[in-house]
């Protein structure tokens, strides 16, 4: 059995805890490797190594740091196919989607290549007589990232790409379900020229997360995962004096106005609801058609579209999506479907009986469609995170806008319409962090920022873009003068700018 080790101070590090997590191949259902879980002492050793490395790295000029990011980008592009294969084999998403996962992370690295420009501070000449004021952004020290299973390449790169470019060192605690690609990313950062200790990967579960949240040398923690854990991470990390951003779960709605191009909407919904088996925080698992006619037409077309979907193993180039990540997760999705039936929603397409010939033990589940889903239902209120599309019918624009606005989650939302004024009003009023207008998965580009509202994110600062730079730096402001001539009298009142 292959063991997946930690990566500390530039090399593989075998821990001695004797605790492991199973890493499955979701296509076959077999355990393909086991990942070591770190002890508190091992995590402390990684943090100490990171703290030591950070001093020299912060003193390295930003252009040199950017060169490492440029080289890292080249190396990832060189290794793209191999990385995508590993990612698919542990996560279950199809190869093209794994490449998208890596590419979206690379786009943050491209942003980080411009860090010398982004880090330039502010300067005021002559703020007072002979006085100049300038401010600069300095790195925090050792930062940490705790990431979910569903984007094992993109989300680590959202975090360490920016954190390291601005001069921090980093401890990454990836999901224990698909930990191999994050280790490969750290190896590639070393090959790209990052000094040993600047990027470290330690594996584990809640124990490792707690060790990070309470470690006195870790200054900031970025978390992405489910909401209850995000909330816990936010509370525990901030109680220990850390800066914390903690992104949580989601239940994104797609609003379909009567004037929308339904041919396009059906294609968009199908990809956004069922792509990656629905295991995306920016998936669209809820569709809200406005008006009975829109709902009826949409339902008919969706049923036909779902019939064309191919579920297959992650290396099948013709498959639209592959297995979900684990047997437990598959069971959880099937349970939610049953709850939906029990609470009175109409199960129009039932994906639970799907089996892939030759891969009977794989974690596959077919696409499901519900109609008649209502606001009070548990299956509407909670995140299912699987290939299940729920139709919640609305009678008016007002009712449609109130649904995502009042939902506990506020990650993303999309509106489909040909009416620019309605779309503009929707974008302005909806109580959700990221909005798509005829764009089903409105993940902002790397130089903008990513972050939801309500229980989809705890903390004030988004991921990547300028917000990411702010999260991983602190501002220092210098007021300077160079007196000459006679000694001035002591001043006992606060200096002001008259
Ligand atoms: P998860 O919350 O189970 O795990 C996330 C991380 O927390 C992992 O590293 C895991 O090891 C760790 N963890 C697990 N249990 C813990 C505990 N009890 N205490 C402390 N840490 C713990 O999430 P997941 O299943 O890996 O990922 C799916 C979830 O992530 C979904 O809810 C999805 O919506 C969310 N997600 C959100 C975003 C976003 O940006 N808002 C992006 C991707 C995924």
Automatic annotation (TrEMBL):
EC class: oxidoreductase
Listed InterPro entries: Ald_DH/histidinol_DH, Ald_DH_C, Ald_DH_N, Aldehyde_DH_dom, MeMal-semiAld_DH
Any one biological process term the GO annotation gives: L-valine catabolic process
Keywords for the protein's UniProt record, in alphabetical order: NAD, Oxidoreductase
Domain of life: Bacteria
PANTHER family in UniProt: MALONATE-SEMIALDEHYDE DEHYDROGENASE
Protein name in UniProt: methylmalonate-semialdehyde dehydrogenase (CoA acylating)
Species of the source: Caulobacter flavus
Gene from which the chain derives: mmsA
């Amino acid at each position: 059995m292959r063991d997946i080790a930690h990566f500390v101070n530039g090399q593989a590090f075998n821990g001695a805890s004797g605790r492991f997590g199973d890493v499955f191949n979701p296509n076959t259902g077999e355990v393909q490797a086991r990942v070591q879980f770190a002890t508190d002492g091992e995590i402390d050793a990684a943090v100490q190594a990171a703290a030591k490395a950070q001093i020299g790295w912060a003193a390295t000029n930003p252009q040199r740091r950017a060169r490492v990011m440029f080289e890292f980008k080249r190396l990832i592009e060189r290794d793209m196919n191999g990385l995508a294969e590993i990612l698919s084999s542990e996560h279950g998403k199809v190869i093209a989607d794994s490449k998208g996962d890596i590419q979206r992370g690379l786009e943050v690295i491209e942003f980080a290549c411009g860090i010398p420009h982004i880090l330039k501070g502010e300067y005021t000449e002559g703020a007072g007589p002979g006085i100049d004021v300038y401010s600069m952004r300095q790195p925090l020290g050792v930062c940490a990232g705790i990431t979910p299973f569903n984007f094992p390449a993109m989300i680590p790169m959202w975090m360490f790409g920016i954190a390291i470019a601005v001069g921090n060192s980093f401890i990454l605690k990836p999901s224990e379900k698909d930990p191999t690609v994050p280790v490969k990313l750290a190896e590639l950062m070393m090959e790209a020229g990052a000094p040993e200790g600047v990027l470290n990967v330690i594996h584990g579960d809640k124990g490792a997360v707690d060790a990070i949240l309470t470690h006195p040398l870790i200054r900031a923690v970025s978390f992405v995962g489910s909401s209850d854990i995000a909330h816990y991470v936010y509370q525990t990390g901030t109680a220990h004096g850390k800066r914390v951003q903690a992104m949580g779960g989601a239940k994104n709605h797609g609003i379909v106005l009567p004037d929308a191009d339904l041919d396009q909407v059906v294609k968009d919904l199908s990809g956004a609801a069922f792509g990656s088996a629905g295991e995306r925080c920016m998936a669209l698992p809820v569709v809200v058609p406005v008006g009975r006619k829109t709902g009826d037409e949409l339902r008919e077309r969706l049923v036909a579209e779902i019939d064309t979907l191919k579920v297959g193993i992650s290396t099948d180039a013709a498959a639209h999506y592959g297995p979900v990540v684990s047997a437990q997760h598959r069971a959880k999705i099937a349970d939610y479907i049953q709850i939906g039936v029990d609470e009175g929603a109409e199960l129009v397409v039932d994906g639970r009986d799907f089996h892939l010939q030759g891969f009977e033990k794989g974690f596959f589940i077919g696409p499901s469609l519900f109609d008649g889903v209502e606001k009070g239902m548990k299956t509407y209120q909670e995140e299912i995170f699987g290939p299940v599309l729920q139709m919640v019918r609305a009678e008016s624009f007002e009712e449609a806008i109130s649904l995502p606005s009042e939902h506990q989650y506020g990650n993303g939302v999309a509106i489909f319409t040909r009416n620019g004024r309605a779309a503009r009003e929707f974008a302005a009023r909806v109580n959700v962090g990221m909005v798509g207008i005829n764009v089903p998965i409105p993940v902002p580009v790397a130089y903008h920022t990513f972050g939801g509202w309500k229980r989809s994110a705890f903390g004030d600062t988004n991921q990547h873009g300028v917000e990411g730079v702010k999260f991983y730096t602190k501002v220092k402001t210098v007021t300077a003068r160079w007196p000459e001539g006679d000694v001035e009298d002591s001043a006992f009142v606060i200096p002001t700018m008259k």
